[in-house]
Specification:
Layout: H1 3-15, E1 17-25, E2 29-36, E3 41-44, H2 48-58, H3 63-74, E4 82-83, E5 89-94, E6 106-110, E7 116-118, E8 121-123, E9 129-131, H4 136-156
Antiparallel strand pairs: 1-2, 1-6, 2-3, 4-5, 5-6, 7-8, 8-9
Helix pairs in contact: 1-2
């Protein structure tokens, strides 16, 4: 892992992440916008997949093992919630069309900060509104699965 980003990611984790959103920055390429609980937006100059991998490494989370465990509990294999700790479970919502083959199109939102889902819009309270491409029914279904997984984790330990 690149050492210069470790401190930035640790700081983001301490301040609590609301969402991880893929964006395209001119002359830089695929980047990730991270909204923190303080309301601060941080732009990370790497794709969202790499950000998730680095965050998982910092937290010592094996995403493959977590996904395997989730499949047995939720009984679903595609579009599973992203687990970054007991209090940080994120749902994937499509917010843009992919530009290229390996381009990220999913924004990962911490399900606890979602206040309302209506007409392809996700309301995050004081953090604003996210426009989505995903259908409202899909977003609601993903939200319910993340909430259920959160309760499963609460009762398992």
């Amino acid at each position: 892992m690149q050492d210069k980003y470790i401190e930035d990611f640790e700081l983001c984790l301490k301040k609590k992440i609301i969402y991880l959103k893929p964006i395209y920055v001119r002359l830089v390429g695929n980047c990730t916008e991270i909204l923190l609980k303080t309301g601060e937006k941080v732009t990370c100059p790497m794709p969202i997949g790499l950000c998730i991998r680095y965050l998982s490494e910092i937290l010592f989370i094996n995403q493959t093992a977590v996904r395997r465990y989730m499949k047995t509990k939720i009984l679903k294999s595609k579009n599973l919630p992203l687990y970054l700790g007991r209090e940080d479970i994120f749902i994937g919502i499509k917010t843009r069309k992919p530009i290229g083959k390996n381009d990220g199109a999913l924004t990962f939102i911490n399900f606890k900060y979602i206040e309302k889902i209506k007409d392809k819009e996700v309301y995050l309270g004081r953090y604003g509104v996210l426009e989505c491409i995903s259908k409202s029914e899909t977003i609601k279904k993903n939200y319910i699965e993340a909430r259920d997984f959160y309760y499963i984790l609460s009762y398992d330990n």
